[in-house]
Amino acid sequence: xxxSIHQQxxxxxxxxRYLYGKGTHEEHVDPHLVASxxxxxxxxGRDPSATxxxxxxxxxxxxxxxxxxQRPEQHVWHCSVRAAPDDPILxxxxxxxxxxxxxxxxxxxxxxxxxxxxxxxxxxxDHIHIIATLVREDxxxxxxxxxxKRAQVEARLIEADYxxxxxxxxxxxxxxxxxSAERHKADRLGWDxxxxxxxxxxxxxxxxxxxxxxxxxxxxKDAGLLVRTRVLPSGxxxxxxxxxxxxxxxxxxxxxxxxxTLAPDLSLPRIQAxxxxxxxxxxxxxxxxxxxxxxxxxxxxxxxxxxxAAWAAVLVLxxxxxxxxxxxxxxxxxxxLDALAKTSALHTRGELRQAAWEFERASRSHTxxxxxxxxxxxxxxxxxVYSGPAFGRGEDGAGTAMVLDTLxxxxxxxxxWHAQRQHAxxxxxxxxxxxxxxxxxxxxxxxxxxxxxERGRHIAPSLRHHHATTVxxxxxxxxxxxxxxxxxxxxxxxxxDATQAxxxxxxxxxxxxxxxxxxxxxxxxxxxxxxxxxxxxxxxxAPAPESTRASRLTDRQAVAPHLTAPPASRAPRR
Length: 574
What we know:
By secondary structure, this protein is of the alpha+beta class. The chain has helices at 12-19, 52-64, 92-106, 147-162, 180-189, 195-207, 213-222, 259-262, 268-275, 298-319, 323-343, 346-362, 375-387, 394-420, 424-457, 461-474, 479-484, 488-500, 505-514, 524-535, 555-564; strands at 2-5, 32-36, 76-82, 116-124, 127-136, 226-231, 237-243, 257-258. The chain has four domains: 2-162, 2-Layer Sandwich (BirA Bifunctional Protein, domain 2); 180-276, no CATH class; 296-443; 458-564, no CATH class.
């Protein structure tokens, strides 16, 4: 149940004409009154003898009892109350009860016998509109301060009483909703989304990994947006506005949106706060930064780097007591998702775009993000942007699967962190993002896991038995589950690769399992595959050459390395 308090107006009759009209797209069906302040108000929708002027005159009577200079100009209060898409269709008497509860909770008609006059109009199955005159019967103004928050509190109670979908309470950090006029305009012009939504996503992508204000503004222009900047007399930049070239007003002029109106964290000062803590050594030109690699392996390298940075962020969320550091990791994770969606292969792009769109809500709360703690993730986002698009095949595709496996855990950790702090909307958004990341992972991981499973099935039976013994020794509580999973073949191939690379597979496997819980994994063996390949720096995509297939290895060649030689030295694991 979502109540929305709209901007106050000056014409009761004007609003009634809209509520009882056909709507801009003939969407108003059977508009009629479901409740009013006295239960006796005329209904222009179903009473042929009643008119909208009659209802407007009745609602405005207290206003005309005041002297003209005492009448408030903006005297029309308007609240819409909408059910969730999966809620059942409510009857008129149920909506009437909901209307009375909302006007009582907001102070419009608190039940003291002298409240404001109001009426509730229904012109669709899923919502009502409440209109009221902001002068009480006793001539005083109503106490409707913070009516929006009070309506939200009552809506939570209504949801429980009517067994409706529970909407997570807001905290004032959400982006402004797209208006119905903006949605209708988008439909009329054949656009998939309203300009506000398109601009918000484009601006967020421009922020991802950007290291300076100039770079951010250049990215906006490169994305095809119209950009205006405001400069102070001192020469310092004050703010920016953006517009879509095709979004114009009645005078054919572009409609500009300030960053802060797209989302609270897209104001220029909030964006610049991400840049001031960049630890890139001074004196290095932007074009000389190593992140601008254009080598063919750059997308793969960027994804592997991102996986390491994302795992470090998971550990911060799990163990850090510094909320500012944790909030920064979550916000920077949003940049990574924006960058990944921008550079992903076509078959994963849709789900990644949805994951980034959902996680946008999770990246913003009242906790101040201290971005100096999240520069590894921000640089990872930059790596992704400048490494270019991944093709989704071979090592590129496997690298995408590896980073998505880690980002799923990061989204889950973010949801848990927010839930602990009663950030209900953010926690729910992070969980939705995790669901889209899982879907993207299934698409990205299909080919590389198939290759690894094929290799694992061709390993000599005695060697497979040896790796099964390793799993039982390293994971005594999970071994039988792992060995029964379809992914066991891929894990066997990975253990063989780790052995040949000079690692102790049992110690490596135990460490991989201990790094974080595995209970939320759809496939424990698949998660362990990517953890092992990341920790041991093994190729993510590793088909066996015909001349050296695992099936031709002897037990002695494959098993001896970890029995006769210590693990090879390697870079510290993260």
